Amino acid sequence: MRKPLRTRIADLMHAAWIGATGRVSRTILASLGIALGVAAYVALSGIAASNQAALLARIDALGANLQVVAPGQDASRQSIPLPDYAPETIARQPSVEQVGVFYTPPEKIQIFKNQLVPKSNGNALALNIMAPGALDALGATYAHGHGIDHNNEHLPVAVLGSEAAWRLGVTDVGDRVLIDNEWYGVIGILDPLPQAETFNTSAIIGRAWALAHYPDQAANIARINAIWVRTKPGDAETLRRTLAHAANLSGGNVSVTASADLSKARNATNDSLTTLGLMIGMIALAVGGMSIANMMIVTVMERRGEIGLRRALGATPGNIRMQFVTEAAMLSAIGGLAGILVGAGTAGGVALAAGQPLALDWAGLPLAWCAAIMVGVLAGFYPAGRAARLTPTEALRSE
Amino acid sequence: MTDALLTLEQVTKSFPGKDGTMTQILHPTTLTIARGERIAIVGPSGSGKSTLLSLLGTLDMPTSGMLRYDGDDVTAMNERQRSDLRAARIGFVFQQFHLIASVSALENVMVGLQYTNLPRAERHDRAAAALEQVGLGHRFLHRPSQLSGGEQQRVAIARALVKRPDIIFADEPTGALDTDTGRTILDLLFDAADGGASLVVVTHDPNVAARFPRRLHIRDGVVREMTGQPATDSHQPDEAERLPLTGTTEQTAMTRKDDDHA
Predict the structure, then answer these.
(1) Pick from A133, A259, A260, A258: which is nearest to A204 by CA?
(2) Residues 110 to 139 of B: which have CB under 8 A from any A CB?
(3) What's the CA gap between A123 and A128, in Å, rounded?
């Protein structure tokens, strides 16, 4: 009859624990190398992850997750209007978070501070017509005032881009500007939008007002000029196809462009630092494994008496081998745990000092620990083999 | 011989010497140990006492001959079977105690049952009882370094008897202790064996050997039965007291080949 597996494992762990922690200084010295290895990996990959998180946050602020869906062109270079259902079908895609619709502005619009500015002195400002709330999809924020919503879209009010406001000399809401010989009250001034720079030099008015004010051009204005789509971060090419298909279900050409072509940079930053951490960590783990192997060889020589005793008490060579392999693994498990704590602390400290968000490679932590334990097992094989090969009489004769 | 526990039949042990030739440390020996028997093995150092004890305790295998334990041929067993045999039925006590320094007395005694099939709770209870039995009921949680030499040897005895062995082997159990403590330890060993176990003690101390009803003398690898009262004031028994045996007596036999020296 053999012992039940649970008892066998409990006995093994107990014996290994006694051996591994019998002398604290020895435990610390033996597991130091592993601790440094794991700490190096965890810290470096953590710093890399923090860097990356900070970088990604900046990239996303620049609009890496903004796509612009616009009418495509047919073979004869004629624009193919987007169907009216496009905003709805796009919004229904699971990767889409927010949709902002802009309509086609009337042609030859001039925007001035007042009627005294010579008509030849164009400001190179553009007019945009938005559906209520469309600017929110861009992640636009307001330096002053607010945007156009259902309550004011039928009024002669305008939102100015940051550059447009500067050129028009408008500093606060309540001022007014002259657009196509019609006074508009300024209700909002935008912060600079690096993710959608065209809006910096734009005046934006509501769709309802535009339709009512330009009845002769209403059919044109009602056409969608561009749909700005805020998506979840993801593969740009897949998104492009999804959005194009959703925008025109009949398969007509649709133009889908990233507002800023940063999606490649986003994907490219993923690996390099983590790889470096991994390599340094692996080298340190190998060195740590050797120090455990060394320490275990010394241990086996020092503890010949215990080995002989255990053999006399009925331990098989296999029992002895398992005990010392487990002991080595336990030393490196202890080292690995310490390394994870030290590494995470270092990464956290660096992130804090650099003002970055703390990000750890969470999936990597258990893997690093397992790798450390595996190194311990490997390091334990040779010393454990020596211990197992000792005959009881040899071991007991030690003095 | 229904009460025979251990028998050696023409057992020898040789070790390779420096020049590669085999040196016979134990010459052909035939001997029987009965259940409950108390035996002292005496002899000068280097005489082969420890070798004989290792063979009897199944720690080492004879070069030739046969060792039977309770009728089973130990020499035919594999390593695992011999280990299981030791784990379940044989107790050892050593001169150097061989306690694990970093754990308590109780834990040390529990190690004596680690390689048996007993559940952990049962091992704990038995170890506690064994420590009580050797008079260390108040020292369960002391580490070996916090115990005196005599107390350490008591822990070792508790570790040997906790498995309720068929036989206890003690290699110079009093060698590291002063005379009074040694006497107490020997008393404890006798008490431990009172449960029905055989007791085999290796000693170079005639005073210790004198307390055993049966004594074996070993010198230069030759085992002889000692008869009569031993001299307790000398390490060397009188020549007249030695009874070289070449035949077989009813219970024990030791033989020596006259032509075994190469």
Answers:
(1) A133
(2) 111-112, 114-117, 119-120
(3) 15
Interface of A with B (CB under 8 A): 1-3, 7, 10-11, 15, 18, 21-23, 305-306, 308-319, 391-393, 396-397, 399
Chain A / chain B CB contacts < 8 angstroms: 82
- The answer to whether B96 faces chain A, any CB pair under 8 Å, is yes
Distance between CA atoms of A269 and A266, rounded to whole angstroms?
Answer: 6
Question: From the candidates A309, A391, A393, which should be mutated to test the interface with B, based on the most B CB atoms within 10 A?
Answer: A309
Phi and psi at A81, nearest 5°, equal -60, 145
Same domain (yes/no): A211, A276? no
Q: Which residue has the tokens 């079977």?
A: B81
Domain of A107 in residue numbering reads as 63-267
Q: Can you read off the two tokens belonging to residue B65? A: 């001959």
Are residue A251 and residue A311 in the same domain, yes or no?
A: no
Q: How many domains does chain A have?
A: 2
CA distance A301 to chain B (A): 15
Is residue A1 assigned to a domain? no
pLDDT at A328 over 60: yes
Residues A96 and A188 in one domain: yes
Among residues A235, A267, A299, which one ends one of the domains? A267
B93, B126, B85: which is closest to B193 by C-alpha?
A: B93
**A147, A289: one domain:** no
- Residues A185 and A234 occupy one common structural domain: yes
- On whether both A203 and A214 belong to a single domain, the answer is yes
What is the predicted ipTM?
0.84
Same domain? For A141 and A227 the reply is: yes
Q: Summarize the confidence of residues A128-133 as an average pLDDT.
A: 88
In a domain, A373, yes or no: yes
Structure tokens belonging to residue A51: 């860097």
Nearest-Cα residue of chain B relative to residue A320? B115
Burial of B112 by CB count in 10 Å (0-12 exposed, 13-18 middle, 19+ buried)? buried
Claim to verify: residue A236 and residue A119 sit in the same structural domain: yes
pLDDT tens-digit readout, A186-209: 999 999 888 788 888 999 999 888
Domains and CATH numbers, chain B: 4-243 (3.40.50.300)
Residue of B51, B53, B59, B81 for testing the chain A interface, max A β-carbons within 10 Å: B59
Q: Mind listing the pLDDT tens digit for each residue in A343-375?
A: 999 989 988 898 888 888 788 889 989 999 999
Model confidence band, residue A220 (pLDDT cutoffs 50, 70, 90): confident
- Distance in Å, alpha carbon of A16 to nearest chain B alpha carbon: 12
